[in-house]
């Protein structure tokens, strides 16, 4: 059963936030240590997260799924206001920071998809025509990594 935060609840416990966000309590504590989210402590030293932390956690998880490093996520989250709940305009402003990077990632994925189209099912039986073939490691002169996949 999924926990629903009461409409008038201004804060959530770590367990409530974990259940509602689908993120383990240990991950939430990690995000807090890394400066991605914050909480206040009760007199009993229990964490209490503001309601808008749920949106921040969703943003963090979505960004991670897109391959964006936590350090980059942290930097952009610093652009959000701390004295109020972020508005749609605040979120739009920070998403604009990544538009060019995401567009380049999309282009790179499309190139990868197009290069791999001929390889699917071929088992590389046609190495003389394979765009990814690298006989005698000729591409080492151009640097480390999958050169044909990361260069234009």
Give the SSE layout.
Blueprint: E1 11-12, H1 14-21, H2 25-33, E2 40-41, E3 47-50, H3 53-65, H4 70-77, H5 88-96, H6 99-117, H7 147-150
Organism: Streptomyces aurantiacus JA 4570
GO molecular function: 2 iron, 2 sulfur cluster binding; DNA binding; DNA-binding transcription factor activity; metal ion binding
Protein name: Putative Redox-sensitive transcriptional activator SoxR
Structure write-up:
The protein has 152 residues and is mostly helical. The chain has two domains: 11-97, Orthogonal Bundle (Multidrug-efflux Transporter Regulator, Chain: A, Domain 2), CATH 1.10.1660.10; 102-150, no CATH class. The protein contains seven helices and three strands, in the order βααββααααα. The chain is elongated, with a radius of gyration of 22 Å. The model has no long low-confidence stretch (mean pLDDT 82).
């Amino acid at each position: 059963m999924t926990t629903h935060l009461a409409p008038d609840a201004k804060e959530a416990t770590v367990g409530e936030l974990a259940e509602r966000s689908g993120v383990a309590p240990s991950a939430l504590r990690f995000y807090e240590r890394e400066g991605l989210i914050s909480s206040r402590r009760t007199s009993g030293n229990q964490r209490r997260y503001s309601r808008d932390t749920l949106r921040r956690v969703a943003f963090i998880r979505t960004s991670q799924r897109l391959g964006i490093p936590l350090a980059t996520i942290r930097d952009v989250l610093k652009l959000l206001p701390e004295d109020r709940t972020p508005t749609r305009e605040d979120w739009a402003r920070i998403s604009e920071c990544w538009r060019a990077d995401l567009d380049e990632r999309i282009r790179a994925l499309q190139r990868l998809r197009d290069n791999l189209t001929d390889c699917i099912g071929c088992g590389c039986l046609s190495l003389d025509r394979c765009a990814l073939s690298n006989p005698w490691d000729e591409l080492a002169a151009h640097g480390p990594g999958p050169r044909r996949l990361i260069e234009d």
